[in-house]
Amino acid sequence: MYDSGKIIVGLIIFLALVTFPFYNNIGKVNAKPELKIDTPEIQKLPEQERKCVETKEFMRGGHMQLLNDWRDSVVRNGNRVYTNSAHKTFNMSLQNECMRCHSNKKDFCDKCHNYMAVVPYCWDCHIAPKEKKL
Amino acid sequence: MKTLFPFFAVIVLVLLVFAGVNMAGMQFLFGVVIPYAALAVFLFGVLYRVVKWGSSPVPFHIPTTCGQQKSLPWIKQNKIENPSGSLGVIVRMALEVLVFRSLFRNLKTELKDGKVVYGLEKWLWMAGLAFHWSFLIILVRHLRFFAENVPPVIKLIESLDSFLQVGVPLFYITDAVILLAVTYLFFRRVYIPQIKYISLASDYFPLFLILGIAISGVLMRYFFKVHIVGVKQLAMGLVSLKPSIPEGIGVLFYIHLFLISVLFAYFPFSKLMHLGGVFLSPTRNLANNSREVRHINPWNYPVHVHTYEEYENDFRDKMKKAGLPVEKE
Fold it and tell me: B-side interface with A, Cβ within 8 Å?
């Protein structure tokens, strides 16, 4: 090989870049985030009524869009009433409605957001609930 | 045919995953086996191609330049366009790799009133630059799926890319840029007759493939949600060599992953190898110092030389008799 010194250095840099995710992770334990939905407020509810505003599957993928729609509805139209797919009504409010049950931001919201490195800007304006120190 | 064949090839690939995952339940094949195989083909293929290029001799010193060569001290040298040392070559290569300097010089030639005229043609350069840079940013951004504690620099890139704060999940600027740029690069090939004439199936296939990857990614992020935490679990399993298939990820993700696997596996066999080739172009990576340093052709075989001294030794007597001057008596 001609100019093998330079070419091999280049190839080593290439390999180091491409395999970065591998040597950065091998041997590390990667635990999936476990959400806690056992807050006192949820415990108080009877078993059948422990349901979020929409189905679990919908909320998992679409909670951010739902919250965004709520914000637009409240801020732009002054409408605070949300009727879900089961014709039940809810008060459109992150702090007073969502966080009433999910009062454990650290063990609920932050778990997945930190895992996925997502930084939602909810709390730029809203006040995060105070959590009791364990 | 040149356009339709690659188009339907990508469609068939998509349908293949759809059938494999939705009907036959082959998540492990499409989620683990094929990505690993594709990465192996990519790595070994690229190494093989580069080593093969490195083993090819460069018989001539052939930098192409477009500036004043190093000459007399009172003639100003263009040190970047016509480098005479390593530093100049590094700057020249950096401009080439990072901002496509030579494509920036692209001209269009037209006949106007029977005369040949040259005009600026920057669209290809602009679209190429937009495409490559957004692809790079998207690639780097995806590292958030491959690290438990995402490095701050990746978070920074991600937050800059989404700083418009449009919609949720936040809209990425590069998503729009790459779609527009690839679409332009495709239409350019079918719209301009000369380009259409020289375009082959191997030019269209990567375009459709990358378009497919970008579209499936955009659909997944903004429209048809997949189980994103499951996606990261799968990705982390792959890179920590403990592959697992989380439940309920959604077929769209497997389509995205399979098209990327195809791109990786196809890479070393295709024009996409310009990733490595750009660094190994002798017209770019040589310093224009052919008047200072002799470039030895590696092909040169030892030539039997008969010097004048030897010649004179052989024929001295005869030369003297004929009255010819000799150097040694």
Answer: 42-43, 46-47, 50-51, 54-58, 143-144, 146-148, 150, 154-155, 158-159, 165, 167-169, 225-229, 232-233, 236-237, 239-241, 246, 276, 279-280, 298
Q: Report CA A63 to chain centroid distance, whole Å.
A: 9
What range does the domain containing B132 cover? 4-295
Any bridge partners for residue A1, and if so which? Answer: none
Chain segment B99-146, per-residue pLDDT in tens: 999 999 988 888 888 899 998 889 999 999 999 999 999 999 999 999
Give the pLDDT score at A61.
86
Q: Is the peptide bond before B169 cis (omega within 30 degrees of 0)?
A: yes
- Estimate to the nearest angstrom the gap between the alpha carbon of B321 and the chain centroid: 70
How far away is chain B from the Cα of A4, in angstroms, using its nearest Cα?
7
- The CATH number that applies at residue B188 is 1.20.950.20
With respect to residue B114, please indicate whether it lies within any of the assigned structural domains. yes
pTM (whole model) above 0.95: no
pLDDT in the model for residue A131: 67
The verdict on whether omega for the bond into residue B298 sits within 30 degrees of 0, i.e. cis, is: no
Whether the pLDDT of residue A134 is over 80: the answer is: no
Give the count of Cβ contacts less than 8 A between chain A and B.
89
Are A68 and B146 within 8 A, CB to CB?
A: no
pLDDT at A58 over 80: yes
Q: Is residue B24 part of a domain?
A: yes
Which one of B164, B170, B240, B279 would you mutate to disrupt binding with A, by most A Cβ within 10 Å of its Cβ? B240
Q: Which residues in chain B show pLDDT less than 70?
A: none
Distance between CA atoms of residues B219 and A30, nearest Å: 27
**What number of CA atoms fall less than 13 Å from residue A32's CA on the CB side?**
16
The pLDDT value given to residue B45 = 96
User: Closest-CA residue in chain B for A27?
Assistant: B240
Do the chains contact at A27 and B240, CB–CB below 8 Å? yes
DSSP letter assigned to residue A44:
H
pLDDT value of position A104 = 85
B35, part of any domain: yes
Asked if the structure places residue B322 within a domain, the reply is: no
Q: Which ipTM score applies to this complex?
A: 0.88
What is the domain count for chain B? 1
